[in-house]
Amino acid sequence: MEITRRDFFRYAGASALALGLSQLHLDALERVLAATSGAAPVVWLSGSGCTGCSISLLNAVNPTIDQVLTSTISLKFHPNVMAAAGDLAVSAARSTQQAGGYILVVEGAIPTGSGSKYCYVWDEGGQSVTMAEAVSSLAAQAKYIVAVGTCAAFGGIPRTYSPAAAKGVGAFLGRSVINLPGCPAHPDWIVGSLAAVLSGAMPTLDANGRPIAFYTREPIHERCPRKESEEASRFGQDGRCMEELGCKGPRTHADCDIRWWNNKQNWCIGVNGLCIGCTEPDFPAFPLHKSSEDDGDDEIPVTPSLPYHTWLPFVSNGGQ
Q1: Into how many domains does the chain fold?
Q2: Which structural domain range is residue 266 located in?
Q3: What global pTM score does this model have?
Q4: 241: annotated active-site residue
């Protein structure tokens, strides 16, 4: 199906009311369509996930998202942002693939169970194309492959409790990729990593494929301003260390403590929350936190200990 630019922005404007997108973001989308041909081509695929990393990228501040999209990259395909739809959208992705030299960005995990039928990206030639098929095909000619978000990097939530055998990009392809985990990934991590590869300087990666410029060698806890403070006995106690409440900062590698979020407004620890380790390969590691009024040894069951496809039938049958 073909739509005009006027129609697209009319639809985008209506969607903005529901999604809370500002006019600034709509203006950025307008300028995307005028991206220069000299900008680095990017094909962005979305698999099993919540699209949170795309939303996070829209909040890029320095540089702003419109600067990134108009001056740094040429976004050839993105299921949520591009103007084209249907055959035109597929054609954009395939023509970019034929030209080669592009950056393949993958957001969301890749389902592989039951013939990978749990996630389709588009229809082509009368056939539905699965996420697994699209990633396999486009990865072959990509110059760089970037897995954005924990779901794409390590499988994340879809991998943890899913019968669809969801995998991260690297595990699915059986090769190393640039992993930018986070739930969601910070816009600086995305933009900074893209800038690095576009400059021809492959970022230095850790053992989990993460750029050490953003995913620091030492855990967050080592730099946390609460590190040497008294242990908190419950949530909401200002300035106290929350390790005994289940904070995963002692084993989480990221620079959230110095980068902060939402245009450097705050970060999880700064609002008396705890680090849930969302940049780590085992995220989500349950329980996310422990009990409050005692020494923290009793854990709050925030989720069933078994995958939902094993306990749901038990509950549905009255425990029989």
Answers
A1: 2
A2: 219-320
A3: 0.79
A4: yes
